[in-house]
## 1
Amino acid sequence: MFDSWALTLVVFLPALGAALLIAVPRQAESVMKMVALGTTLITAAVGVGILAGFDYGATDTLQFEVNRPWIDVINSRYHMGVDGISLPLLALSMLITVLCVIYSWDHFPEPHNPKAFLALMLVLETGMNGTFVGQDLILFFVFFELVLLPMYFMIGVWGGPNRQYAAIKFFLFTLFGSALMILAFLALYFKGGNTFDIPELVANGGSIARDTQILIFGGLFMGFAIKVPMFPFHTWLPDAHTEAPTVGSVILAAVLLKLGTYGFIRIALPILPDAAHAWAPWIGGLAVTGIIYGALGCLAQKDLKRLIAFSSVAHMGFVMLGIATLTNYGINAAVFGMVAHGLITGMLFFIAGSIQERYGTREISRLGGLLLQAPRLAWLLGFCAMASLGLPGLAGFWGEFPAILAAYQPAPGLSEGLFRFYMVVASVGTVLAAGYLLWMYQRTAFGTAKKEFADAHVHDVHVPEWLAWAPLLLLILLLGIFPGVIFRVTDGAVQTVTSALQAVGG
Amino acid sequence: MTGLVAAAFEAPYLDYAALAPEMVLTGVLLAVLVVDLFVDEDRKAIVAQLAGVGVLASLVPILFLAVDGNDRSMFSGAYVVDDFALVFKALFLVSGYVVLLMSADHIEEGDYWKGEYTFLLLSSLLGMVVMSSSRDLLSIFVALELLSLPAYMLAGWRKRDLRSNEAALKYYLLGVLSSAVMLYGMSLVFGATGTTVLEDIAVELGGGVTEPLVGLGIFFIVVGFAFKVSAVPFHFWAPDTYEGAPTPVTAFLSVASKAAGFVALLELIFVGFFGQENVWQPLFWVLAVLTMTVGNLVALRQTNIVRLLAYSSVAQAGYMLIPFAVGGSSDQAAGTAQTAAIVYLLIYAAMNLGAFAIVIAVARRTRSGEVSSYAGLFSYAPGLTVLMTIFMFSLAGIPPFGGWFAKFYIFKSAIDAGTGWALALAVIAGVNSVIALFYYAGVAREMWMQPAPSDDRTPIRVPPALGAALAITAAAVLAIGVYPQAFARLGDLAHLAVR
């Protein structure tokens, strides 16, 4: 019973909660918060049930599977399931939403309106969870698109001064990608045996002619690469991140960016193995360009949030490099990198939001002396900066290092020389990452406060903040020490991806 | 040819069951005309109520016919009641009902001639219902005139308003011109084939090489209908007419009247001229590309909500033309193309009518059609804002609202055809849907992200009839978006018999 309903609950409970929220009268703000928190907690509880019931011995098979008719006329089915790749991301998405509700408890950005804000957050959760468990291209597409609207409004209504530009830019970029993506999905349908079912397509996809595969992969690439975002499609990201309210930035960084990389691993690589081999050198090239470009961009930033946004471009470059190697090692690293980046960058955006709330600015040159004024907050910032630059023992390390290592020995059929060159470039990127993060930390935390804030009374970390941050901080540490927790889950599922790739790579 | 030979008069076979929807509707519109004469000025609402009930009543025989399921054909194939006809009759009647709901308070408050208005609206509706069954050049033409002539008058209903006069005159002149062009094309086709029944025309024409005369005839007929569905470059009347006409009439024109044009095109192309795709496919390809691109680009610059919706509906017509541009390559492609066009029309009707209902509701308060008058709507009319957001993003094709499925099916028809031209068209449509998002999201931005112009926060009072119209359309848009199966099946059922 639970097995067949769990995923449906996980996906649609938040939507139900959003509907409930709308019915709550305007004045009853505490009721709204309780409804939102309750919904996310119940959803997370079902998620814990899934984690507990998951068969870790068979991570390569879809579990908690539901497969019912949905739109018969186009052969699209309501097919959901989790395997080892989906599971960590699904858990991440549910955890982040709970924490975001807690963080917003009394941090509602202007123009307040908690009802709409929380409802949008819940709709976002439905879209994110659905994307990670959908096993039918059309179902995937609907959820993939479902996250656009709430995020558009979150940035556009509750964002910073330049919010309207950032919101529409985010929307237009992503929609452009998904318009081409849906065409690619349709092409897969007709070439891959008249089905939208992802596992079936993985079985049939290899037989599509190579040239056709390369063309279809192009459409998928546009859809996913813009979402990741890969250089040179990243320009929407710094704007969106900078203008979004704190919670919006956190969800965007922690979960939304993963939808793109997840799409590559779930759909593009295993269904179109020939094309993956043809595209991999280019993807790898763009990935390392992104690593260097993002790092250099970081060095030039004056705004704390913008800096973190550019660091996301660099980090997602590592994830994409891992994917581009097409090896078991690299893709495992990529999934780990996705989770680690979600935790760390989510945390960094939380802290940036809290700093802005206290000082009213995110301009690095106006900040300073955080260690004196709010020592706990400063230590947390330092901890996350260390995690972000890939310090061994923290989660960030296990996303970057294996990805670089995987580039040393890419999948058979890919140019070793080229990928070793990529490896060197990516290593330089880690050095630059240490540079920009430490420099940022030095400018914000060390020294004494600038004159304008010298006498300011700065509150250190609040209780809701501790509540929202503690799970993330613990996980960053835990996954850093026991990376096997994730690798054990992902490995089996990644095997199926790479075996689909090896079938043709030879 | 038998119908043309003069012999002793023999009454044609009439299947009264098949004609029941038309007869009920005719009865109602006559009743409306008579009742209007005897009702006092302050009780005219009863006329509209009678009309509403009557329109719903004519849906009843359609249900019976649908359950019965037999195809019925009369007048040697000139008038056919099949699933295709029933689906569209139901669509027209439901759209007509929603327009009546939208008109109820609009026309009343504006001090217009309510009885006559209702009568003309029903007449136009009757024309559309007849159009759904027409499978003959003549019956198509008669249906078209029956639906167009009342619409010309309705467009000018605000007779003391110069813009409304202009709207009616433009619509009338261009409408008559297009009818003439179309009629000339029909005469050429009749000259070449000697018959007006579409099925017989298909047999006479066969496939393969097209005579220049027939090619010219098809060209003129398509151009005539391009006026009706406001395809670029024959769209110039639409924005002016839409802006000048009373808003419920605009909704009626942009949805029902446009759909009727597409119904006629479906009948003509997929029954009469199937096999002559070398003539019409390139023609529709060019029309589709021009219509969606020009419609979207010009819509970007609009500051008036009705003009914006007018250009948006031009662009939407462009998407609807895509199936025609790709549907001729094979029987399978024709099947997908028909489903795509039918599904699009059904969904488009719901979302566009809904958008116009919001325009009417908001204008009751702001007395303005400027997009900027929507600023801050969320702060004092959150319900209307959410609904308008749903309709806008549905028109833009964003899941989970109905529009995504309509667009999806259009893409599917293009990819299914699989030719290079079809693929190019699909990519152009994809780029266009991104352009379109900009202005649809622009309306949402105005409502959600701009401050309200005044401090007046009194909510907008939505009269019950208008509220019902909103509820029907919003429910349809959401239901289709989440569970498209129910509606897509209609599109699949309702295929015209391709030879």
## 2
Amino acid sequence: MMRAFRTLVLRDTRLAIRVGGGAGMAVFFFLTVIAIVPLGIGPNLKLLAAIAPGMLWVALLLSALLTLDRLFQADYEDGSLDLLMTGALPLELVAAAKALSHWLTTGLPLVVAAPLLGLLLNLDTSAFGPLILAMLVGTPALSFLGSIGAALTVSVRRGGLLASLLVIPFYIPVLIFGVGAAGGGGVAVVPGAGSQSLLLLGAVALVSVVLGPVASAAALRANLR
Amino acid sequence: MAGMSELTASQRFQAFANPARFMALSERLLPFCAGLTAVLIAVGLYLALLDSPPDYQQGETVRIMYIHVPSAWLSMFGYMVMAAASATALIFRHPLADIAAKSAAPIGAAFTFLALVTGSLWGRPMWGTWWVWDARLTSMLILFFLYLGYMALWATIEEPVRAGRAAAVLALVGSINVPIIHYSVVWWNTLHQPASVFRIGGPAIATSMLMPLLVMALGFTLFFVTLLLVRMRAEILRRRVRVLRLARTER
Amino acid sequence: MQGFLEMGGYAAFIWPAYGLAFVVMIGLVVQSVGDFRAQRRLAGELDAGRAARPRAPARSTGPDA
């Protein structure tokens, strides 16, 4: 079973890297959103530095949402999903494998890009460490929670926007604790709030790793039977 | 319903699963529910607008509370009904359960919307701004999004049984997330005044204000139940229409 | 009466609140009852059609549920 899991992860990862570069587009979108922020609110460096952690997280969220509909759609359309559902690997693990692959090909590249984009917003280099750590802990939650939205809308053509709308409320705790762990949102004023939010972020991520695959499998079964 | 007392609980449960029985039962219940709703709301309005005193600090604006607080309660009640119905649909496969969930959503969403707008109208004279990002209002806004997403999912998937199961999954995921979301919002912001009615030591507001509040809350709840029955009846008929139309073209 | 309508100067907030509640709730009732009546009429028409011609040939109009 572990071998089947690993095979699925590798297959999806290879597909994502090869076909149309979903990862590249997400990072490009991330860059675009961050780049237009100063165009919108002015180049005041102090203001930009103040909003940098929050803005980076919001843009990260939106970029992660972009590639959600690739999670199950392609396999649904060519029938591979039916095969996977009747295969040896439990559907929950199938969903988990796909979410993991999504994190590897979308989440991780976004995390790598984030500090560099932070420079555009005058993010202090001392904040890089907390930001990267927070995003490393938080992006799996984005992938696993996002898979629920993708699974719910798998039978809907062009269901990407609906999937995003369904998933954004679930992203809010990740956002709140993620920004807190990155040192933004006023946590510098309250001692210990940064590490507390990192722990809470970790808790949310753990819940999502369990809830995501279970709910996604249920949603897939609802849509495909 | 002769002989119902001889059936086991699960058989009685199954009996209500029959749409025809539900239609008959709800038809008998409706006038009673509607009448009770009207009476309660009328009494509540009288108490709220005419028979209760203005607040020492807030003046007459406290009267908005008699709409805002019951609406907020009903918005949460609505989601709980949706979640319970969804769980029943997924676990027990009760055929009326996902109809109940679908019917409850717009009513709950309407109350959420009312709570948000009346909250805003209440807050403006008190806090000076139309919107304040405090824990309660923010959580209510997110709840509104959850409702809208749920309704959007129902509207997007055509086949009713499939839509019902997917929506049920969404409602359950939502209800698991609501405490997490709420906690994160509270953590994020601690501005709003503490809940002044259901506190451990008893209600903290005067009886003269508690009565209109409770009567209105009860009236709104009966309103919810009445409309839920109406909408469920409409949905049962809608599915029948769909089946009839499909059968017609298959010959 | 004047004092009642003015609500201590807060009329601009209180009456829209009650007014909106009235509009939303009545609107919900109208939409719900209207929808029920429409479905009941449709179901009645379809049932009558079936009773009149139980072996009617397939119609060309497709379903639009």
## 3
Amino acid sequence: MSCSNQDIDLEEEYTPVPFSLEIPEIFQQKLIAPLIPNNNPLTEEGVALGKKLFFDKKLSGNNSQSCASCHKPENSFTDDTRFSDGIDGVFGVRNSMPLLNLAWNFDDKFAWDGKELGLERQALEPIVNPIEMHSDWETVVAKLEQDPEYPILFSKAFGTSSIDSSLVAKAIAQFERILISGNSKFDQYLLGNATLSLEELNGFTIFMDEEKGDCFHCHGSDNNPLWTDNMFHNNGLDTNFSDLGLGAITGDPNDYGKFRSPTLRNLIFTAPYMHDGRFTTLEEVIDHYSEGLQPSSTVDPLMKKVDQGGVQLSNQEKTSLKAFLLTLTDFEFINNPNFRD
Amino acid sequence: MLSNCSEDRDIRLNPVAITLNFSHSWNGTEITNTDFNQLKFTNENDQILSIERLRYLISEVSLTHESGEITILDDYNLVDLENNESLSFRTSEGVLPGDYNSITFRFGFKQEDNSDGAYQDLNTASFNVPEPLGGGYHFMQFDGKFINSASDEAPFLYHVISAIDPSNVNDPIDTSFTLNMGPTTIGSNTIINIQMDVSEWFKNPNTWDLNEYNINLMGNYEVQLLMNQNGSSAFDLVSITQ
């Protein structure tokens, strides 16, 4: 009877405040509005709950890991290891993806292989994955219900103290959607508030040059400040595939070896690189596109000089390209206290 | 009776939207994205090729009324064969129902509309052209592979943009073009069914040798003009339904 009254009281308090998303000026100029699902609007209470859940180790089977264990704010919400180990010490086979600007992924396909349709569905998966957080929803919900704070926070966020997996995922997705990075040196350059060195400018020219780097077809441009197309490409890593990527999801052999283009923002924090973290430095990544491309049946035509190993950049061009890429570093994002535990 | 006639004359027609549906063929055989990534097409130059990506821009639907009045609908649409929703385009602006001598649309953007970075949805779709190549947007991104003269698989990137004359880099040549679908009657639910014959881009009037022109074509002024000529015969009206 007491509990029942508490439920009623809590539900009467349901007056969530719409969350005002801080959209960077350069995004407002260049991009369409972010995708916020009608059935999970951003609220102050929902985002706050999502943040608490994101950093809470209760969500794992032995209370040792949270989402942030593999998606650390200081690493642009990835980690610094090739593969991440779960609570049982078992390592996965993919590099943890950075989490930023996710509300502009309009195809709503997440993870390297696009298997997660929507952030809400994505947020469900690691918690029960046996090699990640290795818990189950019955246990997680019980832990949250026994916590003195969570029932109240859920009531404030969703109008009910009855916790379930769907609401947990919704809250985490809300927090993930506010992880916006749009204040790098290059953003400020585009806004006329910063200057680039000659080397950085040369690097940008190489990035945009069809006959040099030709990076813009997959990785955005000054007009697409997401610095990704969020599409799936085989970028010539392997001739034979140990990981089928998108192809394992669609079952289509034409998709074998295709992975989602990651954003180029904050690369200084996100090493190692590629879906399997095979490259430990940016130099190795640039060398791959310059000389290391491997032919295969599904290599993207945009890897156009695969027969020569790549676009054959000079050492000076590689240095300039790296200098430009580092102008996409957003320290404000990394240090934002709103994104930290 | 007189009253009825008067009422008839007073009926006000409201503008109606038009739907343009785009289908695609290879030499008349219909193709969809399920035909992608397969070396199953042969061009006019007897080269075997695959289609791996095909996106193009249409804009400026224009109708010339029997009275001579021209209505231009200020819309555009990125047709992407990997996105079925994009194959059907309903104009956001309307036109008065009636008989029209012609309906046309534009492939690409005319020069004054091809403003660099001006369209947020096209920016988000990464359809931009780098500023040194004139800026603005691709008109078409057609990527695939072909069997080259050494019998190897090789990529081609048939990207149509405004042509930059190296002798006059500040004044790109408008390589967009309009396509006239002929007379039509616009009713409350008019659907214009248009088909692109993809093979035409390799055929008419310029027989395309992929061994010669395959990658790095955006900055090739002469090649952009050849593309412009070939594209003009690539679109046909299939039907108009009411």
